[in-house]
Amino acid sequence: MLNKTSATLMLQTIVMLMEKQYSTGVTNFPSTFYDDAELERCYSPYGCFSKAYPWTEHRPDNYFPVSPETLGVRYAVFTRRNRKIPVLLQAKDTTKILNANLDPRGPFYFISHGFLDGGHKFWIQNMADALLNLEGNDAATVIVVDWRRGSQPPYGQAVANIRLVGAMTAHLIYNIYGMLQLSNLDNFHYIGHSLGAHLGGYCGHTLQKKFNLKLGRITGLDPAAPYFSNTVTLVRLDRSDANYVDIIHTNAVPLYFSGFGISEPIGHVDFYPNGGSIQPGCKNDGTNYQGIDNDMYLQVVKYVSCNHERSYELFTESVAPSCPFMGIQCKSYEAFLEGNCTTCDNKHLCIPMGLHSQKVYKSFQTGGLVDSNTNIALYSLTGGSKPFCRVHYEVTLKVSNSTESRVHGPDVGRVSITLVDRNNNQSDHRFMNEEQKYYRPGDLDTKLMSFKDTGLPPLTVIVEWKYETNLLNPITWRLLKSSSIYIEYIKITSIEYNTVITVCPKQKKPVVTNLPTIMKTKYCFVDNDYQLL
C-alpha cells in the first residue's frame, strides 16, 4: 500500500498529465514567495479567504483563490422558454435578474461541474433538459455555474478557487432572493459534481453566515476526495450546508487505487450504488503505475472518469427513472449483498436514489423515523449501461435432496435466471454466481440479485444450467450424460414490489445444460395434495 507521500505524488502526476491533455491556454496562477507571506486575501464584496488552519490540513499545497475577474464565472440561465440560448448572469447582477425569465414559483436548480470541466459539457445540458422536462416543472429554472477558467490545473489552485466561486454564487442567489421577493430558499437545489459538490457546500455556508439564509438542498455527485477526506466540516461539503444534503458515491476508493471520490458519509443520506467504488461497465485493465506514459495516462483517466462520472449519469436518469431506483439502508455493502437487508421497514429504510429522495426523506422525518443530525447510508445495485436502474430480489435456490438428485450426485455449473411477469415481459437473464459453483443435493444458495424492471412483479421464472468442462477438475467431466441439476424450488423475494413467489420445475424434472426450463408456482404442488413446498 502506498503511503501518503506516494499518494500525493500519484495525484500530482495524474494531474500533470491531465494538464497536458486538457490544456486550454488558460493561465495558471501558482503561489509565490509573497503569496505565502500572506495569511488572508480579500475580494470585495465576497469576503476574505485564509490560508491558515484548517485550510492546510491534509493538503500538500495551499493557494489563495484567484481574483473574480480572473475566474470569469458565468451563470447560464435556462428555462422552458429559453432552452438553447441562455441568459448569462454575473454574481453581482441585480436588475438583469428581472429580464432572465425567472419564475418565482421555482424550483431553482444550480448545476456545477468539477475539475477540468466546464459548463458547456453535454452531461450538464442533458441534466438541465431532464429537469426542465420533468412533469410539473413548468416554472423551473436551471442555472449552470460555469467556472471553467478556474477549474484548470494545478489541482490545488482549483481547490482554492471553489471557495470564492461558492461565495460568488451565494451572492447571486441572495440577489435572486431579493429581486424576486422570495420568502426563503427552500426551493433552491444545488447539484455539484466532484469539486463542484464542495463548491455547493461553500455556497450554502456563505448564505447562512452572511445572509442568514439556508439552501433547501445540495446534491453531491461523487464529491472529490483529494484535499477533502478527513478534513473538518468547514473545509468540505457536509449536512449543515443545506436543509437536505444527499450524496451519490461512485468512485470512493483510495487515490492510489485510482479513486477520486470521497468515501465518508457526509450528507443526511449517502447512496453507495454497487458499493460506491467500482461501477459495472467500468473496466479496470490492470494499469501498472510503475511507468507513466501517455498510454498509461489515457488508461488511468478512462478508468477513473468512468466511475467518477457515473454519479451524474445516475442522477440524470433518476429525474425520470425507468424503475424505482431504490436504495436500501444497511450496515454495510457486504451485509447488503449477503441479503441482510431485503425488506423495507423501520430498520432498513428504502429511499429512491437521486432527485426524488428528498420527498421520501421528508415523509420519514414527519413520521419520526429519521434524525436530521445523523446519517443514513443506503446501498443498491445498478446496471453497467443505460438505463442503469435495476430492481432487487433475494433469490433462494434449493437443490433437491430426492433419490434422483442423490443418484445424480453433485455437479458444477452456474444457474441463470430470467423473470417473467403476467404480461410475459421478460427481464434480462442473470447468473446467481459469477463463477461455476459446486452444487450438492440438499444445498441452499441465497443471493441478492438485480434485474431490469418489466414494470410488474414476476410470476414465473426461466432457469438455465450453464456447464463448462474443466480438464483439471474431474467433477466436471461428463462422458455419457449431460450435466444437469435437480432444483427443488426457487424463492423470489422482491424488495421494490414487496412480493414473494416460490416456483418449481414441472414434475420435478432436472434442469439440463443449455435447455431453458420454465418454473411456475403451480408446479410446486406435489401428488395432488396441494401442499406448497
Question: Which features characterize this protein?
Answer:
disordered N terminus, elongated, 11-stranded mixed sheet, disordered C terminus, 533 residues, 10 helices, 24 strands, 24% helix, alpha+beta, 25% strand
Write structural notes for this entry:
The protein is an alpha+beta fold and 533 residues long. The chain contains 10 helices and 24 strands. The chain has helices at 4-21, 33-37, 68-71, 122-133, 155-179, 195-211, 294-319, 333-337, 357-366, 403-408; strands spanning 40-43, 47-50, 74-79, 82-89, 108-112, 141-146, 188-193, 215-221, 242-248, 269-273, 326-329, 350-352, 376-380, 391-399, 411-421, 430-431, 437-439, 444-451, 458-466, 484-485, 487-494, 500-503, 511-512, 517-519. Strands 4-3-6-5-7-8-9-10-13-11-12 form an 11-stranded mixed β-sheet, with helices on both faces. Strands 15, 16, 17, 19 and 24 form a 5-stranded antiparallel β-sheet that branches. The longest helix has 26 residues, at 294-319.
